[in-house]
Specification:
With 41 residues, the protein is an alpha+beta fold. It is built from two helices and two strands; from the N terminus they run βαβα. The protein has one domain.
Length: 41
């Protein structure tokens, strides 16, 4: 079992169009790193 806390960030517009597009992000990362990963997604 992993002790890592992750969140799944998805593109809602893509989901509404029938495509699941998202990424798992480590929630313990620095906030700037999390934002960068969301922007890249």
């Amino acid at each position: 079992m992993s002790n890592e806390i992750s969140i799944y960030v998805a593109d809602l517009a893509a989901y509404n169009n029938g495509k699941l597009h998202g990424v798992w992000i480590n929630a313990t990362d620095d906030l700037d790193d999390i934002q960068e990963q969301v922007n890249r997604m």
